[in-house]
Amino acid sequence: MKKLLVLLALLLPFLILTNIHAQQWTDEQKDIWASVKTYNDLAVNRDAGFLNYLDDSYRGWEYNSEVPEDKETVKKIISNRDPNIKIVYSTLTPATIWVNGSFAYVHYYYSTVTEDKDGKREFEKGRWTDILTKKDNKWIMVGDHGGEVK
């Protein structure tokens, strides 16, 4: 019993400090994050509905692209993805969600496991920054930057 109390006394400050530093999102930040998750799910599933989350003025710059891409280019990229590559697992983790009126940006990490037609799996991880505006009560992207980090 004495050992348990000592262990609890040692762990208690850690547990309290961890809780204090936990991220607390406002309702607006939660709404923005819900949009980010929704359009990422659509993109992962090759669903053209993803394009509804891109403003016509959209410009994005992936790490491995030589120049920023517009909405039409993203449409071509999504529609030409290899159908033999299956997403096994995908996750997003927010780092920062900043919002000011109808403008916001979101920094987040992602990780994905894909599988080809032969069963070979690949792991990818990276980070993105999405720049959003609120139009017609919906958060949509006007720009982004990021990609795989090796």
How would you describe what is shown here?
There is one protein chain. The model is unreliable at 3-21 (pLDDT under 50). Helix content is 31%, strand content 43%. With 150 residues, it is an alpha+beta fold. It has helices at residues 2-20, 27-44, 71-79, and strands at 54-62, 69-70, 86-100, 103-115, 121-135, 138-148. 12% of the residues are buried. The chain is globular and about 50 Å long.
Give a nutshell description of this structure:
The protein is α+β, with helices and mostly antiparallel strands and 150 residues long.
Write the layout of secondary structure elements.
Layout: H1 2-20, H2 27-44, E1 54-62, E2 69-70, H3 71-79, E3 86-100, E4 103-115, E5 121-135, E6 138-148
Parallel strand pairs: 1-6
Antiparallel strand pairs: 1-2, 3-4, 4-5, 5-6
Q: Order of strands across the biggest sheet? A: 2-1-6-5-4-3
Helicity level, as a percent range?
A: 25-40%
**Unreliable residue runs:** 3-21
Characterize the overall form: globular
How large is the count of helical segments?
Answer: 3
Strand content: 35-45%
Q: Kindly, what is the distance between the CA atoms of the first and last residues, rounded to a whole number of angstroms?
A: 47 Å
Largest sheet at a glance? 6 strands, mixed
The overall pLDDT average reads 87
> Which structural class should the secondary elements be placed in?
alpha+beta
Assembly context of the chains: single chain
Order of helices and strands: HHEEHEEEE
Give the strand tally.
6
Using only C-alpha atoms, the radius of gyration works out to 19 Å
